[in-house]
Amino acid sequence: MTLYEWRSAEPVRLRRIAADRELRLRLLELGFVPGTELRVLSRGLAGGLVVAHGDTRTALDDRTAAALVVRRAEG
Q1: Read out DSSP for 33-75?
Q2: What is the phi/psi pair of residue 11, to 5°?
Q3: Cα-flanking dihedrals φ and ψ of residue 21, to 5°?
Q4: Residues pairing with 53 in the sheet
Q5: Residue 67 pLDDT > 70
Q6: Residue 65 three-state SS
Q7: Which SS3 state, helix, strand or coil, does residue 62 take?
Q8: SS3 for 24?
């Protein structure tokens, strides 16, 4: 499942980034490292997301959110 498809307020863990090299490297630079816990804070009308990861909040467009393969975080 991708972060874009995730419809819950529950946290998820990033499994992998399914994107081209350029986008993958950019996301890694922003702290989207496999194993990181993510939480969707809000969704925009155009499909974008605001995501919390660690102490950081990042806005992602729908294409980028669809590149983040996630699984439910285990408490």
Answers
A1: -TT-EEEEEEE-TTS-EEEEETTEEEEE-HHHHHTEEEEEPP-
A2: -70, 155
A3: -55, -45
A4: 56
A5: yes
A6: helix
A7: helix
A8: helix
Instruction: For residue 22, give the 3-state DSSP assignment.
Output: helix
Q: Which amino acid is at 73?
A: A
| pLDDT tens digits along 13-58 | 999 999 999 999 999 999 999 999 999 999 998 889 999 999 999 9
Closest residue by Cα to residue 61 from 43, 37, 41, 39: 43
Helix (H) or strand (E) holding 2: none
Q: Residue 9: its pLDDT value, please?
A: 85
Cβ(29)–Cβ(15) under 8 Å? no
Contacts of 6 (CB under 8 A, 6+ apart): 12, 40, 70
DSSP-assigned letter for residue 9? S
Q: What is the pTM of this model?
A: 0.93
What pLDDT was estimated at residue 74? Answer: 82
